[in-house]
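# step 3/5: fold
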Amino acid sequence: MAMKYKIAYTEKRKNAYLVVWILLWFFVFYLSYTLLTSFVFSTRALENDTMRPELQAGDRFIASSYSSLLSRTLPLHYGNIVVIDKSRQKSISLVDNLLEGAVRFFTAQQVSFLKQDEDLYIKRVVGLPGDEITMTNYVFRVKRRGDPYSYTEFELAEKPYDVTIPPGLAFWDEALPFSGNMGPILLGDNECFVLSDDRNNTNDSRTWGPLSLDLIAGKVVFRYWPLFRIGIP
């Protein structure tokens, strides 16, 4: 009888250790995932065609993540495609942030507790701090601080890209961004100018104005879906 009791007790201890180890490894995995997606990378999906032809609705990609503490020293370059997170303008409690991380973890980034996806935008950087920018026929020219000459956005870009330029309409006022023309704007020391590749869509700095670098959550580095267009955008 004593031997049976000893065996049962030993088995219970083994099972208890197993449960503890499973919980511990799960916690380590969850913590690692949270840290990585907060400070290293995140996965995103584009839900519209505002970045055509480079990115299309349904594209999924990996974006490098930046914390707000690093946003003032982002290694941004002309032509980079970035993730804009306007929720950074809001005050979010630590508890809500933890709940957001948990919900996104258990739903594989598909659900947001804070509905932060509504504040996320994918845009292209055409202007950096200190630049003077102008727009003619939907194409931007950039005069960098201290440079006597201006260049088109394509000349400054690290990687070639195309944009979709809409046909002009006579009733569009030249004072509106819809007209395709814009007078000079001087960017501040903590500001950038971002655009949609589809210039039909003006849900970008043409209507928002220059953006604080603090609102940049990351930079698109790799498209992994669809498979036939996999690569660096």
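# step 4/5: annotate
Residues 35 and 176 are 42 Å apart (CA to CA).
# step 5/5: archive (pending)
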